[in-house]
Design brief:
The chain has 16 helices and no strands. The chain is mostly helical and 305 residues long. The longest helix has 32 residues. The relative contact order is 0.13.
Amino acid sequence: MTTMTSWTIANSRKLARQERRRRMGPLALLTHLALLLWTVLTVVPILWTFLASVKSEDEIFGAAWSLPATLRWDNFARAWDQVHIGQYFLNSVIVVAFSVTGTMLLGAMAAYVLARYPFRGNRAVYLLFVSGLAFPVYLALTPLFFVVQNMGNVPLIGPFIGLNTHAGLVLVYIAYSMPFTVFFLAAFFRTLPTAVGEAAMVDGASHTRVFFQIMLPMARPGLVSITIFNVLGQWNQYQLPLVLLQERDKWVLTQGIADISTAAGYDADWAALFAALTLAILPMLIVYTVFQRQIQSGLTMGALK
């Protein structure tokens, strides 16, 4: 009996391998090779950056691919304190936290109304939101500069939302993140069943309560997915803060990292630069790793429903 069972298992594995080889046609093979190449092109620079962050400058330029003789953790301390990466890091956390919160709150409410409430002009409003996806950020840098500058002239609140303010940058981040957020969430809200919300309204629940207590929990996979995309996009944004934040103490992390490499030309502190890059990459890598399953489930649910 044992011999027969072993033979059956071995035969099943052999048949499975033959089936996989049969399915692996030329197109599938090319697809796997392309994915492998893309993985190498993505992972190798990140690993090299992590490796360079604990090297001396002589090792970075003299033996770029070798392991460091000694782990130079002082590169991180120098980047954090001497080139003020710690302050820039905190500024980025504050800006991204408020902007993502505002984007998700306003974007979810707008997407829900556009997806579930028919009214005159619904389609036109939706298309206006989606049309924002067609405009690259650099095309609006000059108008944005003057808009935010004029916002600074508003009585009472002007000094808090004008140029060189984090609140002004947060408002711009929200505005530029809304098109994709509304586009993604509107499609997701349309897939949710209406019976639960209708039953709650029959029981006396308001539209606001239905949205916050019923629809938002049901849309959690989609909300998590778009939240991570917004965090990644706003954390890595460089052009907008470069134009809107000119005072050094208000800079975000991307501006601080760029300043290290451009302030002194070839005399820049390259070891501290790679340490700063590592500090910028690690939080986003951790966020994506932790929420990877939620992101995939959100995208899959939106595609299948």
